[in-house]
Amino acid sequence: MTEPYTDQYAAALDEADPLRSLRGEYHVPRHGDGEQAYFVGNSLGLQPKSARAHVEDVLDKWAAEAVEAHFTGTTQWMPYHALLREPLARVVGAEPGEVVAMNSLTANLHFMMVSFYRPTRERPAILMEAGAFPSDRYALESQVRFHGFDPATDLIELEPDLPEGTFSMEAIARAIEEHGPRLALVLWPGVQYRSGQAFDVAEITRLGHAAGAVVGFDLAHAAGNLALRLHDDGPDFAVWCHYKYLNSGPGAVAGCFVHARHARTDRPRFAGWWGHDEATRFRMGPDFDPTPGAEGWQLSNPPILGLAPLRGSLELFDRVGMEALRAKSRSLTGYLETLIDQRLSDTLRIATPRDPAQRGAQLSLRVLEGRGLRGREAGRSLFESLGAQGVLGDWREPDVIRISPAPMYNSHADVLRFVRATEAWREGRA
Ligand SMILES: *Cc1c(COP(=O)(O)O)cnc(C)c1O
Questions:
Q1: Element at 421 (helix H, strand E)
Q2: Cβ(220) – ligand 1 distance below 6 Å
Q3: For 136-173, how does the pLDDT look when each residue is reduced to its tens digit (9 = 90+)?
Q4: Dmax (CA) of the chain
Q5: Is 252 in the pocket of ligand 1 (CB under 6 A)?
Q6: Fewer beta carbons within 10 angstroms: which end of the chain, N or C?
Q7: Cα 219 to middle of ligand 1, angstroms
Q8: Interatomic CA distance for residues 349 and 100, integer angstroms
Q9: What is the Cα–Cα distance from 182 to 158, expressed in whole angstroms?
Q10: pTM score of the predicted model
Q11: d(CA 143, CA 130)
């Protein structure tokens, strides 16, 4: 078993995989008589089979008990969030009081900035990456303007210093040092959505804090992907979504982390009744007394139907733990890298860092040439051929295909299938 490009090799890796049975817990979309090789869990994760029962439980209770369902049974709605708190904390390496599921990612980013972006004349600036996900840039730019500052000078966008839009830690450190006295906030991704580069949360946090700035992270592509340690790494806040690696459905209720050091804070916030101390919320008094911790940033009574699939997903994360998932993820992505190097180096260039510590599940693949086509044209042609062969990646302009083997449900056989499908396209067979 020494030749990676064989069915036997992939099968042996899958047989040795302690997490192999998890695939059976998910609905894998069909392709012909078989299943898709689904590599788009970084965009919309697959549906856990248990999601339906959890949603139906809410519908059934609503039908049978209506308002009383808030206070009955093991899944009563009033403390429904408490069913999620601890497993969610384990996924991101936080204390239970540091996390909450609420709103959407971009909404949480805004609400966090209300509290944690407090620009002054001396310190007005935000440091972020150039080429960030557009929603993040819109949110940050509009916050700078909202406070009466000028994005041209006060939204500092660091350009990548390495090939393929990646960053060295030195460049990030230099930027934090150079702009340090003017920085109110450093906002950085855990994993960059386009390049797939993973960043050192602890080190960026340390540098930002040393410069006197608040440090926040967008973990859209990191939560459920990396073995995060948010409490120990110490950022002030973080936000993420649950529909990517956390498999909780389209537009799922998002996640938010506020470090324990801010559990009781007199920072300003936009308040709502669900952030009020649980013990006295229903006295319905006029004065806001926040619940300590992340739950104090909640506004509204939560969408129980929206939280239900998250329960099913988090049960699966809890069953295995992030360390085991991450170990399998390294194996899958490493296998993909090995096969691309061996078989596809004329066709695809890996744009994601080679160091496993600097990436998660995803490899971003720049399409070079094939079938007489180059660059974007080759990319579109390959991308469409892969889809027709039941191999799903996603497309990022101008010429990148992102392939993200998710350790929850992808196999080494899926990875081999991607490589073979790409060869079939290149050789005009598909
Ligand atoms: C997926 C993603 C988003 C999406 O934002 P929503 O508010 O959930 O629509 C935002 N930022 C990043 C970095 C993402 O990857």
A1: helix 412-426
A2: yes
A3: 999 999 999 999 999 999 999 999 999 999 999 999 99
A4: 72
A5: no
A6: N
A7: 9
A8: 39
A9: 15
A10: 0.97
A11: 17
CB 421 within 8 A of CB 386: yes
Q: How far apart are CA 258 and CA 239, in angstroms?
A: 9
- The string of pLDDT tens digits covering residues 186-233 is 999 999 999 999 999 999 999 999 999 999 999 999 999 999 999 999
Q: Identify whether the C-beta of residue 307 lies closer than 8 Å to the C-beta of residue 252.
A: no
**What are the residue ranges of helices labelled H in 227-364?**
230-233, 304-320, 322-343
Residues 320-346 have pLDDT tens digits of 999 999 999 999 999 999 999 999 999
Q: Report d(CA 109, CA 163) in Å as an integer.
A: 29
CB contact burial 29-63 (16+ within 10 A = b; e otherwise): eebeeebbbbbbbbbbbbbbebbeebbebbeebee
What is the C-alpha to C-alpha distance for residues 102 and 298, in angstroms, rounded to an integer?
Answer: 7
- Tally of CB atoms within 10 A around 305: 13
Domains of the chain: 7-35+322-426 (3.90.1150.10), 53-319 (3.40.640.10)
pLDDT at 1: 55
